[in-house]
């Protein structure tokens, strides 16, 4: 079995770019770092670094090894956290997956209230829009519902919210003061994307535009909510965005939030509890979310 301390030192050398830099970062002498790297090479039977001028250059084997240790180091870090929890008397851990707009609007308050009620609970909040390699599934996953998606066996799904999309228009847009607009009203505008094209929220918008008889031309590929809103504020174009992501200062005259008349894109938000019978913390988190959402 590989020595995990040597793996940590090796990864530091790879990340730092040299023995000396790794020694500075880890608080060791360059000699100690070199000894650990030599021992790791003997342990693995691999040549990890080659002389290049006055320094060292990582080999292809080194680059492959460091890539394959990413999951290992993540799991070791998680194990360190578990040991810390046990040593300090914390009784449990709750991992919650969330997407960006839910994170901004709900997660801070949820974390504060849940921690106040369960001070011995260790919370881990993880953005679920990025593929998660390794590790156990989320104890509680806050997600946008996708038709036909399969939940983990034995889990429970709880509807949380219906989130209609809204149009964000520059303050001087001809329809900025409208009580509502249709998607067709905006067909000729310059559109700004606010999510990745293959993301579920983009697909919901695309389906509604198809139902309205057109396909929007995105002149700006912002692909995140905050950047898209900034483009609208600058008067570049319009964006159609889930309502949960469209909260703006009420004093902002440069962006108007206008409701959309049917066919209106709507996303449905749910919570999936992995172990509903044995996860008191996850069930309480759902109760708090429902209270928070109202």
Automatic annotation (TrEMBL):
Q: Give the UniProt keywords, A-Z.
A: DNA-binding, Transcription, Transcription regulation
Domain HTH lysR-type stretches: 2-59
Q: Known Gene3D superfamilies for this protein?
A: Periplasmic binding protein-like II (3.40.190.10), Winged helix-like DNA-binding domain superfamily/Winged helix DNA-binding domain (1.10.10.10)
Tell me yes or no: is Ribosomal protein among this UniProt entry's keywords. no
Please name the GO terms that the record assigns under molecular function. Answer: DNA binding; DNA-binding transcription factor activity
Listed under GO cellular component are:
protein-DNA complex
UniProt cross-references to PANTHER family, sorted A to Z: LYSR SUBSTRATE-BINDING (PTHR30346:SF29), TRANSCRIPTIONAL DUAL REGULATOR HCAR-RELATED (PTHR30346)
Similarity annotation: Belongs to the LysR transcriptional regulatory family.
Write down what this protein is called. Transcriptional regulator, LysR family
